[in-house]
Each structure stands twice: as C-alpha cells, then as structure tokens.
Amino acid sequence: MLERLALIALGREAGFSLDEIGAMFGADGRPAIDRAKLDEKADALDRTIHRLGAVRDALRHAAACPAPSHLECPSFRKLLRIVAHRHPARRAKSERA
Predict the structure, then answer these.
(1) d(CA 74, CA 54)
(2) Residue 62, CB half-sphere, CA atoms under 13 Å: how many?
(3) CA-to-CA distance for 59 and 42, rounded, in angstroms?
(4) Of 88, 91, 64, 85, the residue nearest 75 (C-alpha)
(5) Which of 43, 52, 77, 85 is most buried, with most CB under 10 Å away?
(6) 3-state SS assignment for residue 9
C-alpha cells in the first residue's frame, strides 16, 4: 500500500494526470508502468526545465539591469514577447479586461 501511495506521489510530482497515474496500475493493483510514457514525461520535463531556466536567467538580468525602466531593457522586452507568444489566450483575455 505504501508503495502505491509513493508511486502516486511520484507521478503527481512528475506532472502525470490522475488518469495517467491510474493507468500505471494493472487490474490486480500492482504497478504496470509503460516505460515509453516515462521517457515522454522525462522529455517534457527537460523542455520545461530548459524554458524555466531561460525565464529565470532573464528575470535575474532584469533585476540587475541598469536600464531606468524594465521596459527599456532589451532582454526584459524579449522575455515579454516570448511569454506573450507562448500564451496567446492569456494575452487576449488580459487585453479585454
């Protein structure tokens, strides 16, 4: 039972949905994990880590940037463009507000 709970916790930590985690168990309740799904999730985590690392670096730059305003900082403006491009629905929603 503790192993099942630990597997569920690990799956959630890795970003698997509850449905995906449920599919990791066989009909007998024992783990039956699809290794290809683990590889896919690891690849997705690598992409997320890379993207968040770039965002972190840009934020650190903006925090130390000597530009009088963040909007005058080319690096910060680039970060804003990247985020706006990746989240067009959020951008459209905020423009309507």
Answers:
(1) 15
(2) 18
(3) 25
(4) 64
(5) 77
(6) helix
pLDDT band at 95 (very low <50, low <70, confident <90, very high): low
Q: Contact at 8 Å (CB) between 58 and 78?
A: yes
- Phi then psi dihedrals of residue 57, to 5 deg: -60, -40
- Cross-strand pairs, 25: 31
Is-contact 71 77, C-beta < 8 A? yes
Under 8 Å between Cβ of 64 and 39: no
Let me know: does 55 contact 79? Beta carbons within 8 Å. Answer: yes
According to the 3-state scheme, what is the secondary structure of 15-81?
CCCHHHHHCCECCCCCECCCHHHHHHHHHHHHHHHHHHHHHHHHHHHHHHCCCCCHHHCHHHHHHHH
User: Quick check: 58 and 77 in contact, CB under 8 A?
Assistant: no
